[in-house]
Known about the structure:
This protein is of the alpha/beta class.
Amino acid sequence: MFHQTTTIRTALQAATETLRQAGSDTAYLDALVLMGHVLGLSKEQLFARTEDPLSPADHSRFEALIQLRAQGEPVAYLRGVKEFYGRNFLVDPRVLIPRPDTETLVDTALALIDANPDIRTVFDCCTGSGCVAITLALERPMIAVAAGDVSRDALTVCRQNVARLAPDRVQLYQSNMMNAVPGRFDLIVANPPYVRTAEVDAMRAARWPEPTLALDGGTDGLDVPRHLMKSALEHLAPNRYLVIEGAYDQRAGMFEAFHQTGFIAEDVVSDLAGRDRVYVGKTRA
């Protein structure tokens, strides 16, 4: 595919065409990011060096990454990192790739912490890569943060991120929801699986690479959030908060689940696109 190309510019052009033919809507951006990854250069540096030749080794490595991207492998998995809240987190197929929508979950939690000085302990359930827990620990150093996940594989990735970004700041537990987590917390946050099973089945049929365990929320997408609410209720004191990320069309179901579990449905927060994204429940006094 790239054997006749010799410069960054021509390699990018060929790669962009390959990805476009594979159906990518972000072909040029993907090629640019992967080229920067191979060469260890920023986008700005690449733009200044487009006429530089590629070494055979870099050329081959770039070609291999483009082929994988054309087959549907996410850029984040190919690079091994994903930026979230201004920090780079290690990611691979064992964990969900952090998304901008989840920054709304972090923003909501930070706002609650700032508005309630008595919030001193936070637990991040379904932590995955640990991006939420680590971000909260670093953005608000005065709080104690713990996190858990049912997946041993996900926790391996999470531990690597904690060691790199927030050593000794996040206590980790392997736990189904909060079943194996001791004590009570002032705030529990979660980005649980909330995609409907039928959608997940379609995604898997299309070779979606992210772990099903991190996506599948049951028939209506709310099986895991309901389980989480029941588990969280036992770990929250009165007048404390549970903050859950969910789908834009799950407001009625989330609020009903809050009420049925014993929470007060306190608020819903919109994401950057203006859609319902984060649901806030509060324990009763």
